[in-house]
Write a structure and sequence with these properties.
Order of helices and strands: HHHHHHHHHH
Radius of gyration: 22 Å
CATH superfamily of the largest domain: Winged helix-like DNA-binding domain superfamily/Winged helix DNA-binding domain
Structural class: mainly alpha
Number of helices: 10
CATH topology of the largest domain: Arc Repressor Mutant, subunit A
Amino acid sequence: MFLRRKHIETLSDEAIIVEYQKKHNNKYIGVLYERYYHIVFGVCLKYLKSSEDSEDAVVVIFEQLIEKLKQAEVSNFGGWLYSVSKNYCLQQLRKKSYHTVDYSEFEEILKSEEGIVFQKENEEEMYQLMEQKIEELKEEQRICLQLFYLQKNSYAEVTSLTGFELNKVKSYIQNGKRKLGLLLKNDYHKLIGQE
């Protein structure tokens, strides 16, 4: 048993994946876990900013690999795993932002961008509409807007969290803000009875 385990540990990542796809034995995932735990944890910590959340994320990510690696064609496991980990973290940030969203952060932006006048009696409907319209944005715009406005990250922090270049982050925020204003404008005027 010891020799067998030792043999598996000498295999390349790609060879381990091939063996796992043939045998579906989780010991192969265990070897990858030992090799990459610290890297996945580091990626998660970069995005989630919490050791506890990052530890939980690592467990979930490796549990997901049990299914993902059965079919995936992976030529560079380290790069692929980094992308899987990053995407998982961004997904968690999106979920978390929806639970703690205060859409009033967008009020001043939209007033200045599209001339939308907020009225207190329509506030709840406006926030529901805004939540719906944010989902219609391109993924990059949505992520950047949420990180920048809702979670109060700086441009540099959004760049670090997403891996997008600084100029791209600024563009996604600016274009996302403009697009959100346009998406909201017509529906909002219908909402308050101004055609």
